[in-house]
Amino acid sequence: MLQHHGHDVVVVGAGIAGLAATAALVAAGRDTVCLEARERIGGRLLSAAAPPGALDLGATWFWDGERRVADLAARLGIDTFEQHLAGDTLVQDAAGVRRLPGNLIDAPARRFAPGADALARALAAELPVDVVRLDTPVTAIHRRAAGGLDVRTPSAVLHAEQVVVAVPPALALARIEFGSELSPELVRLARTTPVWMGAVAKVVVRYPAAFWREAGLAGAAASRTGLLQELHDMSGSDGRPAALFGFASAQAVGPGFEQAVIAQLELLFGPAAAEPEALHIQDWSDERWTAPPAVHRLADYSLFGHPLCQRPVLGGRLHWASTETAAQYAGHIEGALTAAERAAHSVLSLTPDEVNSCST
């Protein structure tokens, strides 16, 4: 028998957007719960421990002007450092490998010393016990005849005055049943909006030392012929742990992928690249709670931050809050925080009368 519970707000997803929205709502005194389908928090903030630091398998950087993420890291006491830029660039094409002077790929950016997912862990640690509920996928969201929304999970129905959906719109439409509650225009938009990193595999390769730096290389490379289409240095602030990372199409992952990656790295960076200490392959398209089916076909990034995702729906009670819905910095951690801020403000600014008068 399903259990029934009532709350002011239910937040769907405990990535950085969902956690930030939850924190703002809890701070404002709203009875809020955050439901996460996975058995971990962080969403696309995922880091592998690699003492004395960590290796980011998802989001990695933030940039100048992204004040929300900078302020959050400072408030939470999370150390950051500058991305390594010094050195030359490698370019791989049909003619072979060329070395070009200077770093032509990376821009000044900052990284998180303990890994990007430290943001999520620190933010969640500030929330009251039982606010974040893991292993709790949302299966349906419907309007209640008596007002508010019903949020269904495999074991319970939660009654909420308002809901914040802090997962990619395409994922929400694939995993959550809305019935005929959403407008056809919004359904079309949500189903065709790309998922940031949803169609890529991130490959992180750890080495005993950052040997490429000793050769005057930045660790930055671009390839038109290899599986890894772009590469960057992912070493820690003092070069430890030493690592390179690159992005490949998730469709390329399969038998022989790891060997082909190592061969490409050896071709680019020399024999030392053929002997990594560890190799991580994070195929985001294979993450059920990140990517919907056929995520590779979603390629129109101009849909990020669409006006339809800037305003509440379902009688003004459902608010979108993933990085894909941000009007600025979409696809970045800053975009996730921007969308969370907008959604929380929308929840807090609507009076009951305004909620009831909002259009669908």
Give structural notes.
It holds the Pfam family Amino_oxidase. Belongs to the flavin monoamine oxidase family. By secondary structure, the protein is of the alpha/beta class. It has 2 domains: 1-46 and 116-196 and 287-360, FAD/NAD(P)-binding domain (3-Layer(bba) Sandwich); 84-113 and 199-286, Polyamine Oxidase, Chain A, domain 2 (Alpha-Beta Complex). It has 9 helices and 18 strands. The chain has helices at 16-27, 67-76, 117-125, 169-175, 184-192, 211-214, 257-269, 333-349, 352-357; strands at residues 3-12, 32-35, 47-50, 53-56, 80-82, 88-93, 96-100, 110-112, 132-133, 140-143, 149-152, 156-165, 200-207, 217-223, 230-233, 242-249, 278-283, 318-320. Strands 1, 2, 9, 10, 11, 12 and 18 form a 7-stranded mixed beta sheet that branches. Strands 7-6-14-15-16-13-17 form a 7-stranded mixed beta sheet. Helix 1 (16-27) packs parallel to helix 3 (117-125), helix 1 (16-27) runs parallel beside helix 8 and helix 4 crosses helix 5. The longest helix has 17 residues, at 333-349. The protein is elongated. The two termini are 32 Å apart. The model is unreliable at 355-360 (pLDDT under 50).
